[in-house]
Known about the structure:
Blueprint: E1 20-26, E2 30-37, E3 40-48, H1 51-54, H2 58-77, E4 82-86, H3 89-92, H4 102-111, E5 116-120, H5 127-134, H6 147-163
Parallel strand pairs: 1-4, 4-5
Antiparallel strand pairs: 1-2, 2-3
Amino acid sequence: MKPPENKASVLQLPIFTEQFNLFTEVNGVEIVAVLNQNHRPIAFESRTLNKAERNYTLTERECLVVIWALNRFKTYFGSRSVKVITDHVALTKLTNGKNLSSRMIRWALKLSEFNIEWEHRTSVQNVVANVLSRNPVGNLDGSQISCAAFLVLALNSREQYHSRGKGRS
């Protein structure tokens, strides 16, 4: 695949006066996070889940990736607000504290350390994180993907979404 010829094929430097967006995704064996601003990537992170983490409930895995990503990227946003965009609606209601396991209570307390604005998007709309988790490049041995290759995958996924008539301009 040839990368698109535009300036969005490289990581951008953060603009500390603008909103940070954190996209997260979990699949069966891996967690993925993308930090961006103005629809351009600042940083990517991913790792495989260990054996114990693979036994977590889906909500616990979704919470794990958010906490892990916030800790990885906190040098970018510090105490400033970060919008966490997730396809798991239960995370957006985590602060109500109902029916939480002890692990989730600990993690809810950890999340309270950050200035988070939650946004729910359906899986189909969460193109940024889904591209990495559902279109693996290389193996799960720590191989990395270039920004240009990621952008091509993201743009192709977005075009497919819009060509089905489900996307908005």
